[in-house]
């Protein structure tokens, strides 16, 4: 079967189908042949809250974070740092907006993004705010010039981001989104959470003209400069552990469709 994503030589394509952002190179039956780079997630000064809804954790209800002596600061756009309870059900009454080719949640006065142009940014320092940020980051990959937006505007400081900055294409040369595949969020699972750093496993459905497959990727976010920012893998990839998922079992179902 031929590739369901365009090769770079054949025309524009989404970041999900490009080196460092690879969603799939070929479809074989119902499996995704993903380009996976394993790495150790950066640690946090505080012990993370282990949440029992993801594929990498054991079963059980998600505990609430341990209260801290001081209230976490609000976001740079003054969104309040509210409820610190990690969600085990989908956020209610979610509003969705189309960002490029992917829908993303929005609640600008509560969870974020309080800023939607030119870059979707400024989220609440809460678990739900982090969840909104993670999906909005994923949706940003379907925009033109997405590599530059992710690294320059949304990336957390660190060695991985430095590598990504060094490998950025020439200004204006980034490929636009591809019409060959549509990727939409389908569910989530908190792998860990503190008010300083969180890891959220996003499950997504990738639809092509031939079929629909399920993939998932842990998204690591760090609170930095008043907002949740994407932590890059050491080789400069924003989603270095993108893999196929056999099903949505273990994820909280959540989508805008």
Automatic annotation (TrEMBL):
Q: Where is the DUF8175 domain?
A: 61-253
**InterPro entries, alphabetized:** DUF8175
Biased composition range(s): Low complexity: 58-76
Q: Which domain of life is it from?
A: Bacteria
Recite the UniProt keywords alphabetically. Answer: Membrane, Transmembrane, Transmembrane helix
Spans annotated as Disordered: 47-85
Pfam families according to UniProt: DUF8175 (PF26526)
Q: Tell me where the transmembrane regions lie.
A: 21-41
- State the protein's name: DUF8175 domain-containing protein
Q: Which organism is it from?
A: Aquipuribacter hungaricus
Q: Organism classification, top ranks?
A: Bacteria, Bacillati, Actinomycetota, Actinomycetes, Micrococcales
